[in-house]
Every structure is written in C-alpha cells, then in structure tokens.
Amino acid sequence: MIDVVVKLKNGENIVSARSTQPDIIMASVEAVLGGVNKIVSDKKIRESEEFDRK
Fold first, then answer.
1. Whole-angstrom Cα distance, residue 13 to residue 4?
2. How many CA atoms lie within 13 A of 29 on its CB side?
3. Burial letters for 33-43: b for 16+ Cβ neighbours within 10 Å, e otherwise?
4. Global confidence as pTM
5. Where are the domains of the chain?
6. Which of 4, 18, 42, 49 could form a disulfide with 27 if both were Cys (CB 3.0 to 4.6 A apart)?
7. What is the pLDDT of residue 32?
8. Residues whose CB falls within 8 Å of the CB of residue 18, separated by 6 or more in sequence, listed in order
9. Which residues contact residue 31 at a Cβ distance below 8 angstroms, ignoring those fewer than 6 apart?
C-alpha cells in the first residue's frame, strides 16, 4: 500500500490531507482532492461566519 500526504497552501492557510491506496496515482489524486475539499469547505465556513456577523 502507498501512503501519500500532501500539504496545500491557500493564502495564509495550509491544509494537509492523506490517502492510502495500492496505486500511487490514485493515492496522490485522492490526497490532493481531499486537500482541495478542505480548502473549499474552510472558505465556505468563513464566508458564512462573515455573513452571519452582518
């Protein structure tokens, strides 16, 4: 099994994501997609909090 850990940076935010698969390509793709999902989710949460304050 291949274990892949990625760190992605979006502005000041850094997220990490991990995937384990028998194929390195699949593990890499899943890890990157997991990191992108975290960034998008965090952005939506921050925007929602800012909207609630107004």
1. 20
2. 6
3. ebbeebbeeee
4. 0.84
5. 2-53
6. 4
7. 98
8. 3, 4, 5, 6, 31, 34
9. 4, 5, 6, 17, 18, 19
Q: Which two tokens stand for residue 53?
A: 């304050």
- Encoding tokens for residue 32? 């990157």
- The DSSP letter of residue 25 is H
Q: For 20-49, write each residue's pLDDT tens digit.
A: 999 999 999 999 999 999 999 998 888 888
Determine contact, residues 6/17, Cβ cutoff 8 Å: yes
Hunting for tokens 């949460």 — which residue is that?
45
Instruction: Tell me the mean pLDDT in the region 6-26.
Output: 96
